[in-house]
Design brief:
Layout lengths: L23 H15 L11 H8 L3 H13 L3 E4 L3 E4 L36 H16 L15 H15 L8 E4 L2 H12 L5 E6 L3 H9 L3 E8 L2 E2 L1 H7 L5 E4 L13 H14 L2 E5 L15 H5 L4 E6 L11 E4 L2 H14 L5 H12 L2 H23 L5 E3 L7 E6 L5 H10 L5 E2 L12 E5 L5 H13 L2
Parallel strand pairs: 4-5, 4-7, 7-8, 8-9
Antiparallel strand pairs: 1-2, 3-10, 5-6, 9-10, 11-12, 12-14, 13-14
Helix pairs in contact: 1-3, 2-3, 4-12, 5-12, 6-7, 6-11, 13-15
Keywords: Aminotransferase, DNA-binding, Pyridoxal phosphate, Transcription, Transcription regulation, Transferase
Organism: Peteryoungia aggregata LMG 23059
Protein name: GntR family transcriptional regulator/MocR family aminotransferase
């Protein structure tokens, strides 16, 4: 019995567009030959009629006939009288055009190792309140959830954020200057796009938050690393190295990663430089809510008063990163430019989450949460410091923030030591790769937020025991 011949009914789904120029018969020949060689059209498959293929590609039937004749002549097709044209039974496949099928298994998210950075401070009380608020807004949805909204974020939320920043951080702003973002990184991206163009010179702290440095370098800016000492960024060194910088990125309240605070003398010098040159200061105030000793530190933005500071904040450190909320406080001269970029890239924040966060701030839940979180992370910090006691490590107890630095003596390889730590379940980062210039201190950057004190201390002791 003669085997029934197959007909490829959907052959054109994978056929590429024919080039706009050049002989049509050659273009069609190459396209069909590519399908045959790659195995997408298999031996025995029937080719469409020349009338059909000419109509589909908008070419003459003569060109289609000529292409088929070339396929037959080269051994890629067989013409059967009264039956049509078929892919030849003996066609060699090109291995490079037929990659082996890859099975990509979904990776399960693994919990962070104790000591990892960027972990949540939210507790069960906070999560319970958010569940209640989110459920309320899902069961009684506002009309604004059903259409596009303000790219700056809801006015109600911006009113609460502005009030909080005035009271807690000394920021001078009104709700119209607040722009809600999806966290610090989006805030930095919006600021860079609004202020700068490729090739513009900027200062960054050295060492620096790696994601910020990568953003500045990735957008084509001319980055100048400015050293950080016990008083923060060395403004005089920055002026000497690149006095014409258009902007500077700083973490003045709690420098990342070294943890120092920018002195008042340096703050005033930085503001004076910005005013004199027309440059902007991008202030990343990422974890200032967590201060364990001494008076609260005022934000650089509140000292400025001349519109040269863009203030970047986040709820990722105070609540949880998965909530994806941060904010910018921008000078009014930049507001429309920033909002235009936001509108073109991200439209507007989640209105449902906005309403829940607004109530969380307005009803005092946020202040209560911060008090609870501050106690928990201080207990974790103290347990970590005690567990890290070692002749090889020098640990400075931070008065603020969610991480500490354990410095190494000499020129030890902190990268290798960090890998050893992770191998025993202690999720630290090496300090030296965070430097941009030649001068590099060596040590380990360790987070203490989001972990129970005993769990964090046990991981640290396992690491220290192997030193």
């Amino acid at each position: 019995m003669m085997q029934k011949l197959r007909t490829n009914s959907d052959w054109s789904a994978s056929t590429p567009m024919l080039p706009a120029k050049g002989p049509r018969r050659l273009a069609l020949y190459r396209a069909l030959r590519g399908l045959i060689e790659s195995g997408q059209m298999k031996p025995g498959d029937k080719l469409p009629t020349t009338r059909d293929i000419a109509g589909r590609f908008g070419i003459s039937r003569g060109a289609a006939v000529a292409a088929y004749e070339m396929l037959v002549a080269d051994g890629f097709a067989e013409a059967r009288v009264g039956a049509g044209t078929y892919v030849a039974e003996a066609v060699p496949l090109l291995p490079l055009l037929v990659p082996e099928p890859q099975v990509i298994e979904a990776e399960e998210a693994k919990p962070p190792l104790p000591g990892a950075l960027g972990c949540s401070t939210a507790d069960e009380t906070t999560l319970r309140i958010f569940r209640m608020l989110m459920n309320r807004h899902l069961t009684q949805p506002s009309a604004r959830h059903f259409h596009y909204n303000d790219p700056a974020g809801s006015l109600a939320l911006r009113v609460e954020v502005a009030a909080y920043l005035k009271a807690a951080r000394g920021v001078t702003c009104e709700p119209d200057q607040v722009i809600m973002t999806a966290g610090t990184q989006q805030g930095l991206d919006l600021a860079v796009r609004a202020l700068l163009k490729p090739g513009d010179p900027v200062w960054i702290e050295d060492p620096c938050y790696a994601a910020a440095r990568e953003l500045f370098e990735g957008t084509g800016l001319c980055v100048t690393p400015v050293p950080v000492d016990g008083e923060g960024i060395d403004v005089a060194a920055g002026i000497a190295a690149r006095p014409d910088a258009k902007a500077v990125y700083v973490t003045p309240s709690h420098q990342y990663p070294l943890g120092v605070t920018l002195s008042m003398a340096r703050r005033l010098a930085l503001i004076d430089w910005a005013r004199a040159t027309g440059a902007y200061i991008i202030e990343d105030d990422y974890d200032s809510e967590f201060r364990f000793a001494g008076p609260p530190l005022s934000a650089l933005q509140g000292i400025d008063g001349s519109g040269h500071v863009i203030y970047v904040g986040t709820f990722s450190k105070t609540l949880l990163p998965g909530f994806r909320f941060g904010y910018l406080v921008v000078p009014r001269a930049l507001r429309e430019r920033v909002l235009t970029i936001r509108r073109l890239t991200d439209r507007f924040p989640s209105t449902l989450a906005e309403d829940a966060l607004t109530e969380f701030l307005r009803d005092g839940h946020f202040s209560a949460h911060i008090k609870r979180a501050r106690k928990r992370v201080k207990a974790a910090r103290d347990a970590l410091v005690e567990a890290l006691r070692s002749d090889r490590l020098t640990v400075s107890v931070p008065e603020q923030g969610l991480h500490l630095v354990a410095e190494l003596d000499g020129a030890e390889d902190d990268g290798a030591l960090a890998r050893e730590a992770r191998a025993v379940g202690f999720g630290v980062k090496a300090l030296s790769p965070l430097y941009h210039g030649k001068t590099r201190r060596r040590g380990l950057v360790v987070g203490f937020s989001g972990f129970e004190p005993d769990v964090l201390a046990a991981a640290a002791r396992r690491f220290v025991a192997g030193l």
